[in-house]
Amino acid sequence: MQILRLLIALTFVLSFSAQANEIQIQSGYVRAVPPSTPVTAAFMEIHNPSSEARALISASSPAAKAVELHTHTQVEGVMQMRQVDKIDLAAKSTTHLQPGGLHIMLIGLKAPLKTDAKVLVSLKLDDGSLIELNLPVRKVATQGHMQGHHH
Description:
Helices cover 13% and strands 50% of the residues. By secondary structure, it is mainly beta. It has a single domain, classed as Sandwich (Immunoglobulin-like), CATH 2.60.40.1890. A hairpin with a 7-residue loop joins β1 (24-31) and β2.
């Protein structure tokens, strides 16, 4: 009986340690857009509790023909979206994917997205691991971020 208790306690400690080092996603959503709009974006907070820097290297979704990692940059006084190769996830920090900053673009939507529906988005990390998300579609106050999508 004593050994069984020890094994249960050890399993709990090991599972807690593994979980403490895993990337965690919070507050994720996909922006609702009019039915004729072929692109949208996904936003979230990505928490890296480990002491090692990580990176988001790609994303995919069956809801879109292409999915790209993007950021906004200032070009000659105009904010423009640009594709990036990866999104760095610093150790012991939270990276915010948000309107006007880093985000995930869903390009060539295969069907209109209904508010409150769920969209499957898969994130691939630099260690080869995948994080599967079912993100809700939410209306967001229009701030013009999707209007001038320039590459």
